[in-house]
Write a structure and sequence with these properties.
The chain has 180 residues and is mostly beta strands. The protein contains 2 helices and 6 strands, in the order E-E-H-E-E-E-E-H. The protein is globular, with a radius of gyration of 16 Å. The structure holds decanoyl-CoA (MFK).
Length: 180
């Protein structure tokens, strides 16, 4: 984490604390409601540059016997930290993401992921997050079961222009983060 982090302003377009965030793209594997294979994560805004996301750990997300696949958990962190970046009111993409898997997460768990922007340096957005099991066989809302840190880069419309021919569906986004 650099020493010269700036503290960005919360964008006026970001929902009020406790408000539900819109999906950033209906076909998104993480949050889209028009993606049958997806995780349909939901998010509410925090008081600052932060969100809390919810993931139901379905049987199809199994990795090791009885527990969530590490890649699915990594995807959930990617989505949550990306959604925290919605508080900037600017499109971002993931540049780097790392996860620490602290405890097993059984199938049937409901995970809450609290994600935030720690600060920015030019186009670089530094984020962090932690996951807790709030419902299910080993629920303990005080225990952190996994943590993540990620770097996002703000991008302009030209970033998505380059891939517009591969889009499945009609892009839509209240925050104009996925417009191509
Ligand atoms: C708000 C919307 C909500 C969205 C939620 C979405 C959740 C899901 C998000 C995703 O999964 S996005 C899909 C996965 N990610 C991608 O497809 C991105 C693929 N990579 C790229 O397109 C480019 O590599 C990228 C845009 C990330 C960076 O390329 P650029 O040419 O724009 O950046 P550039 O090389 O000029 O570097 C700018 C700065 O970032 C730094 N940087 C870039 N990539 C880095 C990296 N990987 N690690 C560390 N630093 C990195 C780089 O060193 C430099 O630092 P300085 O400003 O200090 O000079």
């Amino acid at each position: 984490m650099p020493d010269d982090l700036a503290a960005p302003e919360r964008a006026p377009s970001f929902p009020a604390p406790g408000g539900q965030l819109p999906q950033h793209w209906s076909k998104c594997f993480g949050c889209g409601d028009d993606q049958p294979a997806g995780m349909t994560m939901t998010f509410v805004a925090g008081e600052g540059l932060d969100v809390t996301g919810r993931l139901e750990v379905a049987k199809k997300y199994q990795g090791g016997p009885g527990v969530i696949h590490g890649g699915i958990l990594t995807t959930a962190f990617d989505e949550a930290q990306g959604m925290a970046c919605m508080s900037l009111g600017t499109a971002v993409v993931t540049g780097h993401l790392e996860v620490d898997f602290a405890r097993p997460i059984p199938l049937g768990s409901v995970l809450e992921i609290h994600a935030r922007i720690d600060g920015t340096v030019r186009r670089k957005v530094y984020t962090s997050a932690e996951a807790r099991i709030v419902s299910g066989p080993t629920a303990d809302p005080d225990a952190v079961v996994a943590t993540s840190r990620a770097l996002f880069l703000t991008v302009g419309a030209e970033h998505f222009e380059k891939v517009k021919n591969f889009v499945d569906g009609t892009p839509s986004s209240p925050f104009e983060t996925s417009s191509v």
